[in-house]
Amino acid sequence: MKIVRSLLLIGAFLSIGGIFASAQTLSTFSNMLSTPTGEQKSVAQIGAGKVTIVSFWATWCKPCKAEMAAVAPKYQELKESGVEYIAVSIDNTKTIAKVAPYLASKGYQFPVLLDPNSEVFRAANGTDVPYTLVFNSDGTLHAKHNGFLEGDEEKLVEEATALTKKN
Question: pLDDT per residue over 64-85, tens digit each?
Fold first, then answer.
C-alpha cells in the first residue's frame, strides 16, 4: 500500500512539474494580444531582453487594482533600472469594456494587454488573480506570486531590480 501511494505521489509531482515547465520562459507568451487601444503585442515581445514582471489582473479584482495602484508610482524607477512591468487583463467579453475607462481614469503608464479568453493566463498556469510572474532578462522564470497585500510591491520591486544586477 505504501509503495502504491508513493508511486501515486511521484506521478502527481511529475505531472505538476510538466505543467509548470510550460510556463518556464517568457517566450511561452508569444500569443499576440490587443492593447486597450487596439495594437497587437505579445508579452514576450514587450519583455524581450529585460527583467519582466507580468501581472494578471481583472477589473472586478480589488487586490489586482491595489497592486497596480501600488506599482504605478514605481514604474518609471523600474523602467530606468531595466525592469518591464506588464499588466495582462483577464476580463472576459462581458467585462472587457470596463478595462480602457478604468485605465484612463488611473493614467497608468505601463503596458496593458487584453487576454479575454485567458489563453495566456492558462499558459501561465494561473488560477486566481492577481497572479504575478517575474522573469530574468534571459526569459527564464524566476518567481511566482499569488495574491497581493499592501507592501508586496516593495518586495516585488526589490526582487526585480536585484535580478538586473545579477545579469
Answer: 999 999 999 999 999 999 999 9
